[in-house]
Amino acid sequence: MNPFLFRLFRDNETRIHELNYLFWECTTRCNFHCRHCGSDCSVNSREKDMPLEDFLGALDTIPKEHRPDNFTVVLTGGEPLMRPDIAEAGKAIRSRGFGWGIVSNGWFYDERMHSELMGSGMGVMTVSLDGLEASHDWMRGVPGSFGRAVRAIGIMAREPRLNADVVTCVNRRNIRELPQIHDLLLSLGVRQWRLFTIIPIGRAASDPEMILTDGEFVSLMDFICQKRADEACPMKTTFSCEGYLGRYEEKVRDTRFFCHAGINIASVLIDGRICACPNIDRDRFSQGSIYENNFYEVWEQRFKPFRDRRWAQSGQCDKCAQWRNCLGGGMHNWHGPSCRMLQCHYAKTLGK
Question: Are 81 and 29 in contact (CB under 8 A)?
Answer without folding.
Answer: no
